[in-house]
TrEMBL record:
GO terms for cellular component: plasma membrane. CDD domains: GGDEF (cd01949), PAS (cd00130). This is diguanylate cyclase. Residues 11-72 form the PAS domain. Residues 177-312 form the GGDEF domain. GO terms for biological process: cell adhesion involved in single-species biofilm formation; negative regulation of bacterial-type flagellum-dependent cell motility. It comes from the Bacteria. Pfam families: GGDEF, PAS_3. One of its GO terms (molecular function) is diguanylate cyclase activity. Its EC number is 2.7.7.65. It is an enzyme of class 2 (transferase).
Amino acid sequence: MSDDAAPLSVDTAVYKTLLESTQAIPWRIDLETMRFSYIGPQVERLLGWSPRSWVSVDDWVERMHPEDRERVVGFCIEQSRNGIDHEADYRALKADGSYVWIRDVVHVVRNGAGEGEALVGFMFDISERKKSEEKLMQLQRELEELSYQDGLTGVANRRLLDSVLESEWASAKRAGQPLSFIMLDIDCFKLYNDYYGHLAGDDCLRRVAQIVSTAAARPRDLLARFGGEEFALVLPETDLEAACQVAERCRAALADAAIPHRASDVSHLVTVSMGVATATPAEGGIPASLIEQADRRLYQAKQSGRDRIVGA
């Protein structure tokens, strides 16, 4: 035995002890055979599979969640063939049938000629991190939803209205379809607040929003609070006649609800005035012009005595 052999043997043993004392799972795959030449005993503690059961990359592939398999395997093969170090997150199958989130960090080992001869890496249990990430993403989604929601009535706010109107305008332009817009104003709402109080006024706004939302129930129809006591409806693929029918349904539904308004100059019940406009974006124009047209007709409805619909 050479003088260098003993120190080398000691170093190898030390390295092996260090590797196997970590929480991460070390492993090595020979690229020529695509078989595991080593995997740490930690794998059994985490996944329940004995190290002896990890024979080839096929075992690694089979013990991966089916939904992750194509994405992860394809990515890792491509990176390995190109000699690129990489990492991948996926769900690994445990011996008890459950799954745990794993992050594989992979390094390509090259021979003297610069050719890849092996892959070495570590598997990390990132389940808790994934749970935290998913919780954070859920909170972000909830915050995003809230940022597009009117805090009082729960319907869409002006921010979402503008975004949806722009999107639906572009869609209608491509398809050559009409797009309609309804502006709705609660009649004599200031008098309602003065007579019943602002808390009752807030409740009135919520009730009107809920009632109107039932009249435009298609998945792409959008009800939004435009501001104050004004609401707006975006009606994709809807011509003027059909939009006026929707407006009439809103008006009838409010009449059926019979919300008292003793201070109104129009009726003893809450009523609304509406302006209805339709455009065919393929013929030109911009979304703002549709809002302006509906707003002008709403003004006409109010000037004509309120509690009515103006659509032409």
